[in-house]
Amino acid sequence: MFNIAIFASGRGSNTRAILDNIDGGKINARISVVVSNKSDAGIFNIAVEKRIPHRYLNPSDFESDEEYTGVVLSVLDEFDIGLIVLAGYLKKIPSAIISRYRNRIMNIHPALLPAFGGVGMYGMRVHNAVIEYGVRVTGVTVHFVDEEYDHGPIILQEPVRVYDDDTPESLSQRVLQVEHEIYSRAIALFAEGRLSIHGRRVYLQQ
């Protein structure tokens, strides 16, 4: 069993789904610490409920990026973290952390990357763009994090149909249901040592 750090900025619905799958024996890991850049993030309510250590770390509260990065790395070392899971985390991960945890940081995106990704594309902005563009299929992508937004090697993708009468809100609900399933599946594959990476390709071992 290895230790997971959750980085989140919102209410934590993906985190709750991951916790449910850990409790159900589907993921052989534990969430050892929760980190957020928002002091009032809903994710902290889940952390308190589940008695998970949590840390409020806002980059703007530090005098330099180097100081912030050092504190984050010390927290990750404190809890012997093997995998960082970004679950609606709205801050860019510093390159020094990405370098230390290369191919050990996951993110989930509510579209089929590389479509509808990049700077500023998160949450309802993505679903608005999908509907405005008129695509018939969107989806969910789980990928490893590199130095660019929504760019790292893709682990899993799952399509979601876009209907003629969809609103951004109705589409987001269906996409979120898929997020809850696919993220836990990707984490379970990592925990089982079934992911291997060659260049930009992620291979799933049987």
Task: Give the helices and strands, then pairings.
Elements: E1 2-7, H1 13-23, E2 29-36, H2 43-49, E3 54-56, H3 65-78, E4 81-86, H4 95-100, E5 105-109, H5 124-133, E6 137-144, E7 154-161, H6 168-191, E8 195-198, E9 201-204
Parallel strand pairs: 1-2, 1-4, 2-3, 4-5
Antiparallel strand pairs: 5-6, 6-7, 8-9
Helix pairs in contact: 1-6, 5-6
What descriptive keywords fit this protein?
206 residues; alpha/beta; Rossmann fold; 2 domains; seven-stranded mixed beta sheet; two-stranded antiparallel sheet; 6 helices; 9 strands; globular
Please give a structural write-up:
This protein has 206 residues and is α/β, with parallel strands linked by helices. It has 2 domains: 1-101, Rossmann fold (3-Layer(aba) Sandwich); 108-206, Rossmann fold, CATH 3.40.50. Helix content is 35%, strand content 25%. It has 6 helices and 9 strands; from the N terminus they run βαβαβαβαβαββαββ. Strands 3-2-1-4-5-6-7 form a 7-stranded mixed β-sheet, with helices on both faces. Helix 1 (13-23) runs parallel beside helix 6 (168-191) and helix 5 crosses helix 6 (168-191). The protein is globular and about 50 Å long. The mean pLDDT is 96.
